[in-house]
Here is the input.
Amino acid sequence: MMSSSAIGSATPSETCTCVVGLQWGDEAKGKLVDLLGEDHDIVVRYNGGANAGHTIVRDGRSFKLSLLPAGVLNPRLTSVIGNGVVVYPPRFIEEVTQIREAGIEVGGNLMVSERAHVVFPYHMEEERLSETDSEGAIGTTGRGIGPCYQDKVGRVCGIRVGDLLSPDHLRDRLRRVVPWKNRWIQALASGGNAQVFDADKLTQEYLHYGESLRPHVADTCQFLRQSLQQGRRILFEAAQGSLLDIDHGTYPFVTSSSSSPAGIWSGSGVPARRLTRVIGVVKAYTTRVGRGPFPTELTDGPEGTGESIRRKGREYGTVTGRPRRVGWLDLVALRYAAAVSDVDELAVTLLDVLSCVREIAICTAYEIHGERRSDFPADARQLEAATPVLEYLPGWYGEELTQARRFADLPSAARRYVDRVAEELGVPVGIVSVGPDRDQTIIR
Ligand code: GDP
Ligand code: IMO
Ligand code: MG
Here is the structure.
């Protein structure tokens, strides 16, 4: 197990950046983390688990990472899975193997917090059963995320990465937890099909995973604080988006972690006030996977604008392959998300995709039960009832943006669109992305 010595306070010149999504996920955070990684030394995931799907295109090769920080693609960087992440060890091992097979070195440059909680197959079974209730289903990724965080907060059943390194302790723990889980699963199934688990078999399996994880397991909180003191530059890679945040998102149609920068302090041990830059990633339109309110959703059928955007943007979930729901840019939701995440600048991504529509709409307010509102309601039922007030802007139909490398290369309508977003949110746009490749990026 790695160790690091005692730490003091950080230096004033530190660089601590967060890349955070401002919608319902899939804003192209992975691409930006990969790009910005060049200016940092450490990349940290602080929330979520293998529910994320971050696609990174590097040198013509595409990598899909669910659990590992995007920093692992650059062996110069140290990548950290923070204590706020929930770790499914088989996925960890699969992703490490995938990266090694691509010829990229992974060793001591990948660290996992001993405090991170572990996802077990009973979490997935619990989730499967609760998601079969069509009324209460959230449309989750099925990765056991919610039940694992429930166990963490409930304390009685939580098991952490550090526990996988102590055979007797893990066996004792699972012998207590598994019978309880089996009873719970059977109750959820109420006579229907349910998978039950054997504590000793799970112990064997997870001790084996523990051995694979052991070289990476560390007190990452201490490592990160010490790194700050040494002037190392840290990049936080949020999973999901601010509107999926457990506290600030469209509850209950959210994920079970703090996906805004609010999660950094608790999920990594780095105090929030050390953050020097928060980059809010905004897709040029909106997508959502799973259930929940989506006021600007386009439901205009297989020949409609929604489907054109879905096809051009390849809007299918990385984790589950589900078609993503597609809609116009929602400035009401974005103003709220930018405030929640306290962003310093914006990155507008997938702008090239909007070349497929003739006229582009943006939502500037909602009508809810006959009342015009510009605030983002906390109650999902009010959001469900919201009709978007749309403003139509001239598009740049048929003009490909993928070759643009300077802001001036963009058609004037596309420049106006980006400027409008900055104006509405009161935050400058520093980055514009016009394609999945690294070089398809405009830095202003
Ligand atoms: P993340 O979860 O926020 O990292 O985003 P995803 O990786 O789930 O989804 C973004 C998708 O868009 C990925 O397939 C990226 O390769 C791709 N992508 C990223 N930036 C751009 C862009 O500017 N234009 C286009 N057309 N695709 C992009
Ligand atoms: P990235 O990091 C988009 C959604 C699920 C579901 C809800 C809860 O790629 O942006 P969960 O499995 O977390 O309990 O599901 O959250 N969701 C995401 N949607 N991008 C993601 O991650 C997501 N992670 C979870 O679809 O609606
Ligand atoms: Mg994604």
In short: The first helix runs from residue 29 to 36. Residues 21, 25-31, 53-55, 57, 313-314, 318, 349-350, 352-353, 433-436 surround guanosine-5'-diphosphate (ligand 1) (CB under 6 Å). The first strand starts at residue 16 and ends at 21. The mean pLDDT is 95.
